[in-house]
Amino acid sequence: MSEFNLNAPVGANKKKRRVGRGSSSGLGTTSGRGNKGQQARSGGKVYIGFEGGQMPLYRRIARRGFSNYPFRKEYDIVNLCDLDARYTDGETVDKASLILKGLIKKSAGLIKVLGNGDFSKKLTVNVDKVSASAKEKIEKAGGTVTVTNE
Predict the structure, then answer these.
(1) Per-residue pLDDT for 99 more than 80?
(2) DSSP the chain
(3) DSSP alpha helices (H): ranges in the chain?
(4) Which of 98, 99, 113, 127 is deepest in the core (most CB within 10 A)?
């Protein structure tokens, strides 16, 4: 016997179940669906959570708590290492310039600058939010930070 004679393990390949092909097949008459009732009918299904007409659990239990979803603010994140790579000394970092430089895609969102990476350029940063470490690095390099939303 060689290594190339591959066989499926026993029980891996099963014959297709053919229902409704006579009583001797084992799945004749009712075709394995039992006698009468909703599940025996074609198209007879109930939705997930159905409890036979009783009020389902997910409707019996009171809804509690608070979701911040409708009020959340999403920020486009820009790191200092990206600003250091794309900007030259004396430039202004704002929403319009970030879109032109390709650091953010859309003009609708809010912008937050994070302090990841080294920073050595004197820039004027005018964005919606700045982390404490980013603000410290920008001011240490001689730049200024103005935050519009806090």
Answers:
(1) yes
(2) --TT---PPTTSS-PPP--SS-GGGSS-TTTTS-SSSGGGSTT----TT-BTTBPPHHHHSPP-S---GGG---EEEEEHHHHHHH--TT-EE-HHHHHHHTS-S-SSSEEEEE--S------EEEESEE-HHHHHHHHHTT-EEEES--
(3) 57-60, 80-86, 95-101, 132-140
(4) 113
Give the Cα separation of 138 and 123 in Å (integer).
7
β 129-130/110-114 pair status: parallel
Both tokens of 35, joined, read: 């006698």
The helix (run of H) or strand (run of E) holding residue 113 is strand 110-114
> What are the pLDDT digits (tens) for 62-85?
989 999 999 999 999 999 999 999
Evaluate if residue 108 carries a pLDDT over 80. no
Q: Distance (Å, rounded) from C-alpha 132 to C-alpha 134? A: 5
